[in-house]
Design a protein that fits this description.
The two termini are about 30 Å apart. The relative contact order is 0.16. This protein has about 550 residues and is mainly beta. A hairpin with a 6-residue loop joins strand 35 and strand 36. The chain has no helices and 39 strands. Strands 24, 26, 27, 29, 34, 35, 36, 37 and 39 form a nine-stranded antiparallel beta sheet that branches. An eight-stranded antiparallel beta sheet has the order 4-25-28-38-30-31-32-33, with no helix packed on it.
């Protein structure tokens, strides 16, 4: 994942194929690229013919994907920056249909800035990280560096959790890829331009050694985003050139090299109109021995969106991405895998907050104050911050936007708001807008606010201007935001409200969602309630619905 201050080429691409792809968790790697069948341990129910799939396989913001298979189940982890909990774990049985199963980092306890306490952690936190499974102890491992200062390792025996911190390592493994070798040794590939490999202690708690293994040629420029694999006795480090290329290193001499390099793709036309070049991500092998590459496409204003392509191998052990008319395909035959044991949970639909814990689709903007919210029979948000700036307000709860267009509708009980309180539904990023309720002088009114902005250092430059309002009676209102996140240009977001849940009235002008990449995360729907005068007010959200055409 590229550094916020590092410029990179956003060329949109007309061709160049090539392509390579390798990898899966080494203990599950199964056959060599030229083997005819999977090992007995990988065999299960007979694969079934699958319908073709269409890219993107997930039209939501899940960047820097690391993907593995454990038995008949696929898992992926993604970047979340300043959102908490961090590092979501996605689950699939066919590489095409995915659900959010949990989060590897339960709380961003890396300093006060992640609590919005005197400082802010925007565009910090969970960058490109790694997910692995260790068969010897039947444990999942998440590994990632924080603030370029040190590396954290979390473990769990099930991806739903509980996840707990195993250790902190003083070496910051930038854009790390964790490998569990066939002898159970743990290795980490990491770095930007200069690529290194570290060996961890048998318990995974400390570093035994680290060694530089590769320096990127100046003709290539920057390489980062390491993914580390062992396949057929050879070691591979899969690397991205942000944001338009992919390369791979191969070693026959062991994890510390020497390595040779080959180009995977460069300026390859992607499958999303207006989007960028597929790159970064990870490689995985099915139970039947087929290989796939899950990359992401820069697709702002929505974010970075996962796409999937099959892979074949050359006789001498280099993988090749399968193209369609010289491009990453918009459609491919579905992976031949056994029928899933169940349908995955959709990423759209209704949430009535009927349990005491939030469903894993939700992430807070920075860590929440857990004394100021509760779930069960709706979500109650009590004011947690006195501020006129939404970017400083704690307990703002976010949900990814479904592309290419989708609508979020919220049923809000505002009867317990106090004077000075602001509550509503936002389109949240470094330039934001919202619709909601403001209470002043004992009366509530509907309002639409835009012009909330940050600068390139993520400091607030404007707290927003009310551009439309309407009188409001009663204690309940429905808020709606519709977002168009098709990439390639600034796109509109619109707001409306209803007093009966059926008939909606547009409020305010369309909000232009910017498509700049530098905030990294895409726009999100956000639920908030903050005070501008004094704490004590509350709202209750009875229902949230995310719908897509």
């Amino acid at each position: 994942m590229s550094c916020p201050r590092q410029p990179f080429d956003r060329r949109k691409a007309l061709t160049v194929g090539g392509g390579l792809v390798t990898g899966a968790l080494l203990s599950l790697a199964g056959p060599s690229p030229t083997a005819a069948s999977a090992p007995a341990t990988a065999r299960g129910p007979a694969p079934t013919a699958a319908a073709p799939y269409t890219n993107p396989v997930i039209w939501q913001d899940f960047a820097d994907i690391d993907v593995i298979r454990v038995g008949g189940t696929y898992y992926a982890s993604a970047s979340t920056m300043h959102y908490s909990p961090g590092a979501p774990v996605l689950r699939s049985y066919d590489l095409v249909n995915w659900e959010i199963a949990g989060h590897s980092v339960p709380v961003l306890d890396f300093g006060a800035k992640y609590d919005l306490n005197g400082a802010r952690g925007y565009v910090r936190g969970i960058w490109a990280s790694s997910l692995a499974y260790r068969p010897a102890n039947r444990t999942f491992y998440w590994l990632g560096q924080i603030d370029f200062a040190r590396t954290y390792v979390y473990t769990a025996t099930a991806v739903e959790g509980p996840w707990s911190r195993l250790t902190t390592i003083n070496t910051p493994y930038y854009d790390a890829g964790l490998l569990v070798d066939t002898d159970d040794t743990l290795y980490v590939a990491y770095g930007n331009t200069t690529i290194s490999v570290a060996q961890l202690s048998p318990d995974g708690r400390s570093q035994i050694r680290t060694q530089q293994v590769f320096t990127t040629p100046s003709s290539v420029g920057t390489l980062e985003g390491s993914r580390f694999y062992k396949i057929n006795g050879q070691y591979y480090i899969f690397l991205t050139r942000p944001a338009n290329g992919q390369y791979i290193l191969k070693s026959s001499g062991g994890p510390f090299g020497p390595y040779t390099m080959r180009q995977v793709l460069l300026d390859l036309r992607g499958p999303i109109p207006g989007g960028g070049v597929p790159h970064q991500g990870g490689l995985v092998q099915t139970q039947g021995g087929a290989w796939y590459y899950m990359a992401f496409v820069d697709a702002y204003p929505g974010g970075r969106v996962p796409v999937l392509a099959p892979v074949t191998w050359t006789p001498d052990g280099w993988p090749v991405v399968q193209l369609v008319n010289g491009a990453w395909g918009t459609s491919y035959p579905g992976p031949a895998v056994p029928a899933p044991p169940r349908q995955v949970t959709p990423m759209t639909g209704v949430d009535t907050f009927d349990g005491t814990a939030l469903k894993p689709r939700w992430e807070w903007n920075h860590n929440p104050d857990n004394t100021k919210w509760s779930a069960g029979d709706g979500l109650t948000l009590r004011t947690a911050t006195v501020t006129g700036d939404l970017y400083w307000a704690r307990n703002t709860l976010t949900h990814r936007i479904q592309g290419p267009t989708s609508t979020a509708t919220v049923e809000l009980d505002h009867s317990a708001m106090r004077d000075g309180d602001r509550a509503g539904l936002a389109l949240l990023r470094d330039s934001s807008a919202w619709i909601g309720v403001r209470r002043d002088g004992g009366a509530a009114r509907m309002t639409m606010v835009n012009g909330l902005t940050m600068d390139g250092s993520w400091n607030t430059t404007a707290t927003g201007t009310e551009v439309a309002s309407a009188p409001l009676a009663g204690g309940r209102v429905w808020l709606r935001a519709t977002a168009d996140i098709r990439p390639g240009a600034a796109r509109p977001g619109t707001f409306s409200y209803s007093t009966d849940g059926t008939h909606f009235t547009r409020l305010g002008p369309a909000f232009s969602m910017g498509n700049d990449w530098r905030f990294f995360m895409g726009y999100r729907f956000a639920l908030f309630n903050h005070a501008t005068q004094a704490l004590g007010g509350a709202v209750r959200i009875a229902r949230f619905e995310l719908s897509a055409p």
